Amino acid sequence: MTSTVLGNVRPWGGEAVDIWLSGGQISAITPASTASAGGARIEGKGLLALPGLINAHAHVDKSWWGLPWVSYGGERTTQGRIAHERAERAGLGIPSVATTTAVLREFLRHGTTAVRSHVDVDLGVGLQGIEYVREATAAFDGAIDVEIVAFPQDGVMRRPGVLELLDAAAAAGANTIGGIDPASIDRDPVAQLDGLFEIAERRAVGLDIHLHDHDQLGAFQYELIIERTKRAGLAGRVTISHGFALGELPAAQRDDLLDALRDAGIGWATVAPIGSAPLPWSAMRDRGIPIGLGTDGIRDLWSPFGDGDMLRIALNFARLHGLRSDTELGYAVELASSRAAGYVHRAVHDLAPGAPADIVLVDAENVPDALVRVPRRELVIGGGQVVVREGELVV
């Protein structure tokens, strides 16, 4: 099998090396040289190298990226946003292969090579959105991986038939099914969670539950999820997304919940929104509770914001949580790359032999410099193929 060498790069800002790529994986890392040993050589010019970025919470089926500007509308509540989206999405051709492709191109341009995307499953679109996302992803020929979370944005129990759609999605290959605000959306947290966990256990899939509810209402639902995760033996397969309440609870209650989340093997995903209560990130890190970062939706009917750049999301996380030291700033970048491997079912995602050949080069002195300046991606390799040069897509 022919090898390619990415020569003269600095992994995580360290000493210059050559990274050897073969069969979509990193096959070896050797001291920097000028040789190609008979294979193709890509000159890295001494640039800083990072693993491909991982978006652990996206909605690639929802965006109007690439379409004419869509003005923000509807009521500014979760229920209001859901209603507005349902009323307007068909007129914008959402979901579709074209709009999903436009989002994935932006992700790649910014160095994201793996995505965990919630894809709407409801009585209006059925499973069509999942098919569109799969078709759009396949066209990139392995340059970007997308793991699908079948997501009931409009609720579960209040929409009879949605549980059956989630079950069908799991049977058809979705790795994960989702839930949303069991208390405030469905107003029946026990029924929603029991239904979701039954499918997850029977179909051997993961769960990723959006929880926007605050304070004690949020904490109550964490407890329900912890109980069911332990009972179903789903450690390592359950994620709470957003989870705003965790940063709002009294310290003693929060610490007890963190211990319970650790013992249950539950992870967290956050988009680090401005104005939210900071997560107890260091206590989570010390307990080994995974944290994944994501863009959420970008330019969709919920919000006009976002550009798909995970390095910028990592910067938002750092600023929201008051990170300052080089080690802390480096940790934020790790959350958007190597530490997020489990969210896309990868055993390892790093600049190391055996890892996927997903690599991002930036012109930066070190990792903290790359984080705070968010420079353009000079080169992006996804699945072993060059997909971006000097900030522009070449696929």
From TrEMBL:
GO terms for molecular function: hydrolase activity, acting on carbon-nitrogen (but not peptide) bonds, in cyclic amidines. It comes from the Bacteria. Residues 101-388 form the Amidohydrolase domain. Coiled coil: none annotated. NCBIfam families: PRK05985.1. This is Cytosine deaminase. It comes from Tamaricihabitans halophyticus.
